[in-house]
Amino acid sequence: MSDTQKTLSALPEEEKKDLLEQETERAALPAEARDNGSDDSGEGQGNEGGASGENPDGDADDMAPAIPSVLPVLPLRDSVVFNSMIVPLFESREKAMEAVEFALNGNRYLLLCAQRDASAEEPEPDDLYNVGSVVMILRMIKMNDGQVKLLVQGLSRAQVEEFDNNGPILLARIRVLEENRGDVSDVELEAMMRSAREQSDRILHLRGLPSGEIMNVLNSVNDPGRLADIIAANMRLRVDEAQALLECLDPVERLRLVNKHLVREVEVAAMQARIQSMAREGMDKAQKDYFLREQLKAIHKELGDGEDGDDENENLKKALDKASLPPDARREADKQLRRLASMHNDSAEANVVRTYLDLLAELPWKKMSRDRLDIVKAAAILDEDHFGLEKVKDRILEFLSVRKLNPDSKGPVLCFVGPPGVGKTSLGRSIARALGRKFQRISLGGMRDEAEIRGHRRTYIGAMPGRIIQAIRQAGTRNPVIVLDEIDKLGNDFRGDPASALLEALDPEQNSHFSDHYLNLEFDLSKVLFLCTANQLDTIPAALLDRLEIIHLSGYTEQEKLAIARRYLLKRQIAENGLKEEDIVFRDNAMARVIRGYTREAGLRGLERQIGAICRKLARRKAEGEKPPFVVTPAVVARLLGAPRFLDEEKEGALLPGVALGLAWTQAGGEVLHIEVSTMQGKGGLLLTGQLGDVMKESAQAAVTYARSHARELGIDPEFSQKLDIHIHVPAGATPKDGPSAGVTLVSALVSALTGRPVRSDTCMTGEITLRGRVLPVGGIKEKILGAVARGLKRAVIPAQNVKDLEEIPSDLRRRIEIHTVHTIGELLPLVLEEKKEKTEKKEA
């Protein structure tokens, strides 16, 4: 047994290296020297081609160098190299590049073995085929990206007898395979070779490739094995098919297998050519960009697959037929359907058109819900959902009554205005429930883009209809109740003014022809019942405000809050926190303590949050094992919620001169406002502090002017404006204050400071003043009076023209405060000013 026949894995690394060097030197010797066992080096190792078969007849080169029996292995991912073929290879794997370096340092021979699994990065011997190709490296180039480019030439087939994977590279002991030609007649052989050449020529012709030079090469090859290898190397074969050809040692049988592959390749090429021809028939110069897509369509047609796009277009047409579109909308839909039929289903424009047609099909052009105009039942629903608000409920029932008697009437758009949390949005939900209509809410708070109302034009990417059309689409009927929430908080910027876009939608004379930019068709909004909500009217544009009928919702009184908490809020919070109604006994005085000490608002949201906090703490006690019922008293409220957040200001028995109590309106309800005036030696300067607005500053200046012009009548030194400086201050300076309603309070405080007569501590006032001494009406009388009652004041002075507003105040509250009306400041001052203390003391003496 020779050294090369020893088991490679059993040899030490040094002996293995010596063995490879001996095999390399032996392979480099000429044939004569090898046969004679000579150690002299020959010149034959310069033939890099070896038995490359450059001779077309395939005669072997007698001087071909011998192939060593031990070679480094280079795994191939997805290719097979045949004899005499010169092919480029790219390699980036570290172990494979070391095998290349080893071959270049020796005799430049490599064994190429195809991988069974192309995804293996570091294949093991079991991952490789046992039959490979011995190649010679003709050239090696290192690329910039770290890869190695090899140019190799196939020399011979080889059988792997043993792999050695213990070293830095993969080695293999091989046996060179010789071809073994079977018995076949010359006629049959010539027929197979002619068939192979003709099939190859036909494939080149079908693919549109020049065949002259290639056919000259094939015609010059007379060896069947060489011809089969050349054709196989240039065919699109799978790795397993190419490996089968490489392992076939009979050249005639290999040529027969190649002929089978050529027949299949001819069929594929013919089919591809037919597909391309069919795709080109319906194309002109403007449609060349869709060539590949048309090929795909032709493939589907050839395979007999159904066209999904055609089915989708047909379903879309059926949906449009069911939608009962108006004539204009139907013409536009048909036009867009024709456009869609001429587009490819995957194009971006087709998706835009399809989305538009989906909107046309889903909009309720004719579908309406039937109104349930039972006024008695509507009144019961309003009473069930809301406590109090009698005036508002009466107006809603009047509105529904008109709709019942005249269904075609174009009624006004109702706008509920009031502080937060008084039930404006829920009133719209109750109206929808009473009418039996669908309900949709559109939040306008912070909206600045006109396209949110009118929609975007379809030329923009991501265009969509406006919020009104979207709401109607979601409702599914063309007569829903749509609440435009927070209409007073609309904004505007460079993208347009949404309030201006609402003018058409809310005008009963125009909204029957409402046009959305995305829809680009007229849509009738006259059957939609629009309701608006707002916290204030100052920020609503005049043109939009003119289209609304304002219904004011004032804040709730303490009695109303107590009743609502009992009827609605407590039950809801008990259920949400996992308790039962019998688990909690909530005393009325405890609820009043929550209302007064922990909430100060016109609405009910804060009250419900505090009730929820109490219920959560009691739910924890129940979960910890404590047995209900839990009795909630004022003391328990203080333990659960902590110290009260709001404390009434300490009532003074007597006010100092220069201090007066005014009434102010806020979004949280009425407030009592303290105004202080102080005089000091000076030159007639006027100082205003307390973060007053422009209107309130003007009221203060008007009060000073009135005092100067009526100084003698009021018992004031006429020269006070030259001798004294006046400082007017409104406490809570961090809170902005504005408005004309503090005019009478400013006059009273100023006259009190200049005359030394204190203002009555149980009296509050509100009203605007003029330079001539008139007292003008102001707003928010109900909220202001409620705030005065809550603070425990006994008397209030209001303008005479505000008498009509007293009807809104509940009779039980009006009995708790004495209300005086005045026309002028002359009537006001005797009601609010007391006599000087000195005079009072003299009279008592």
Give an overview in words:
- With 845 residues, the chain is of the alpha/beta class.
- α6 runs parallel beside α8 (251-281), α20 runs parallel beside α22 and α24 crosses α27.
- Mean pLDDT is 81; it is low at 1-7, 23-64 and 839-845.
List the helices and strands and how they pair.
Elements: H1 13-28, H2 31-36, E1 70-76, E2 86-91, H3 94-105, E3 109-114, E4 131-142, E5 148-164, E6 171-176, H4 186-206, H5 212-220, H6 224-233, H7 239-247, H8 251-281, H9 291-303, H10 308-322, H11 327-341, H12 348-362, H13 375-385, H14 390-405, E7 413-417, H15 424-435, E8 439-443, H16 451-454, H17 467-475, E9 481-485, H18 498-506, E10 514-515, E11 522-523, E12 529-534, H19 542-545, E13 548-552, H20 558-576, E14 584-586, H21 588-597, H22 605-623, E15 630-632, H23 634-641, E16 659-666, E17 669-681, E18 686-689, H24 694-709, H25 711-714, H26 720-723, E19 724-729, H27 743-755, E20 763-765, E21 768-769, E22 775-776, H28 781-790, E23 795-799, H29 811-814, E24 818-822, H30 825-832, H31 837-844
Parallel strand pairs: 1-3, 7-12, 7-13, 8-9, 9-12, 14-15, 18-19, 20-23, 23-24
Antiparallel strand pairs: 1-6, 2-5, 3-4, 4-5, 5-6, 10-11, 16-17, 17-19, 21-22
Helix pairs in contact: 4-6, 4-8, 6-8, 8-9, 10-11, 10-12, 11-12, 13-14, 13-15, 20-21, 20-22, 21-23, 24-27
